[in-house]
Amino acid sequence: MTDSAHQVHGVIDGYIEKARERKLKHGVQSSPGINSQRYVVLDELVSVLECTKEIRSQIINIFLPARDATGIALSGVMFLVARHLYVWQKMRAEVLSIETPLTFEAPKSLQYMRYVLNESFRLLMPANRNIRLCLQDCILPTGGGPQGKSPIFIPCGTQVVVNHGAMQRDKDIWGEDANDFRPQPWEDMKLGWHYLPFSGRPRVCPGQQLALTESAYVLARLLQTLRALRTEPEMHYIEESRLTIESRNGVRVAFHTIETED
Questions:
Q1: Element (H or E) spanning 247, and its range?
Q2: What's the CA angle centered on 219, arms 164 and 204, to 5 degrees?
Q3: What is the rounded CA–CA span in Å between residue 190 and residue 172?
């Protein structure tokens, strides 16, 4: 594991050095678009940070969710929707109502699709926990005592695991049907600290908007060309933890195009 980490660090450090060379040669500045029409994250980090380790950590933090989190999230959507065909039909009617060419901005107006994505991310998140290391003794305001409502002492060196996945299936928060796929209640529901598929401020995932936009756009394109989908109801979603949380069984669905007959 240590050798693999060193190898990854070496590759990233090589790109950091190349970015520093570009900075010395071309004078890359911190404001995007001054010297180029492209926004290069690494160049921007090098322009404002000196520590190689810090730059490397920031790049890894961006890379991990960008690796395949959106694909895994969409797989979760397909897994759930394939078992609720009325959801697919309702989303498809909404997408087909768009009279202008589909752009990356268009899916933002699709309210029901947003409900479906919110509910899918609630139940099947690519990243369902956060792990932090306590760097100094501290006291949290709640979490201690028999009811978990008293202060609790956290000594330095303690690893703190925040399980968002468990919270988003908590029946005290979501009701007795917390494990059921229910997009419609999102019509009257507001986002809050009970819903953290992308964590929250100031630790919100930097790729949140990208993941939401990509998911909505890809889903909209599929809805334009696919009439229906179905799957084997006996296939279960079994979590497997890699860089992200994904289905050990994969997600197998059958698509029906507009031309396909039943």
A1: strand 245-247
A2: 30
A3: 17
